[in-house]
Amino acid sequence: MTDHNDPIHELLPLREPTFYILLSLSSGEKHGYAILREVEALSSGRVRLSTGTLYEALARLLDQELIERVESSGKDQPGQHPGRPRKSYRLSPRGLEVLQAEAERLRQMVAATQQLLSEEGG
Amino acid sequence: MSSSALREFYRHLLKLYPPLFRTEFGEEIQSRLRTVTGKQAGLACLRLVLRELVSAPHVLLSLHWREWRLRGLKSVLLPTDLPTRDGRHSWLLAGMEALFFLTWAGLLILLTYADLAWLKPGWYRNAGAWGLLAAILPLPILLIGLLRGMPRWAYPYYGMLLAHLCYAALLYHLELIMGAIILALLALAVMAARVNAHQPLPRFAQHLGHSLQIDPLRWIVRHLRRRAAAPAVGI
Hints:
The complex is a heterodimer of chains A (122) and B (235). Chain A is mainly alpha-helical and 122 residues long. Chain A is 52% helix and 11% strand. Chain A is built from 4 helices and 3 strands. A 3-stranded antiparallel beta sheet of chain A has the order 1-3-2. The radius of gyration of chain A is 17 Å and the shape is globular. Chain A starts with 15 loop residues before the first helix and ends with a helix. Chain B is an all-alpha fold and 235 residues long. Chain B is built from 11 helices and no strands. In chain B, α1 runs antiparallel to α2 and α5 runs antiparallel to α6. Chains A and B meet through α2 and α3 of A and α2, α3 and α11 of B.
């Protein structure tokens, strides 16, 4: 049963872009451009974030401590200043909990919908 | 559309973003832009610009509101949340604190020792009235300081309130009350130092909680919520 005393549930439901951003970070740390690409791929091209929307969401998620910023000195990318550490983002433990709670909420919704539709169909 | 035109467009767009956000993400956004423009050109670049323009009003409103809501007066007066905290930042902070404190202290000294006879007759020739005004004016700033989690710039006002309370208590021979006030304010100061960022309270109460560290209140709210969520047991 869902524990509504848990402050994590106060963050739900997540907006679609937020959900996809967290989902994209669940597979490991990524920088801004990689997140954009991943979100687009995960949503089959339906969610295309603008740079402003992405960084607005990242700032909010950092405030809520759902993600963490890491400085990675990985291989230089085109357009990146050589030798300058790249800022990446990764899911925090709290962010993972929120993502799992949202996934569970969505699963319950889908299950309820499927059940109702199958009853009506049958 | 050329990639250089797109970079120019972004450069201008970035100026519209709130200052703290620009400090935190500006360079990263431009770096990301260099990556994108290195891979796309022509119509793809135009599409990017249009996407930014469409989302800009909402993003800008949201970011400015967020910055005001979260940082409030602190972002206007002191950039205490700048990611790069260096010696210069500490000096700036100390300078701002000293400026606040010295302004009010100077005003009080001036009113106590200056001859106001050169002013036209009126209430403003009364040093007592000015003293009262000087005592009352810091209170809203102190209140904002309390709501913002007692940042360092609010400390002088905190001290001034304590001084005024002590003065009033001594004037009316209320030494016991004065002792209680000092103890209460000291306790609040100690508790304010123990700030917990994860409080399951509304944001307003969080700010107040950060200032006063009302742990018992947090416990009561949790307890009441648990009771409300618990299923009723029938007989």
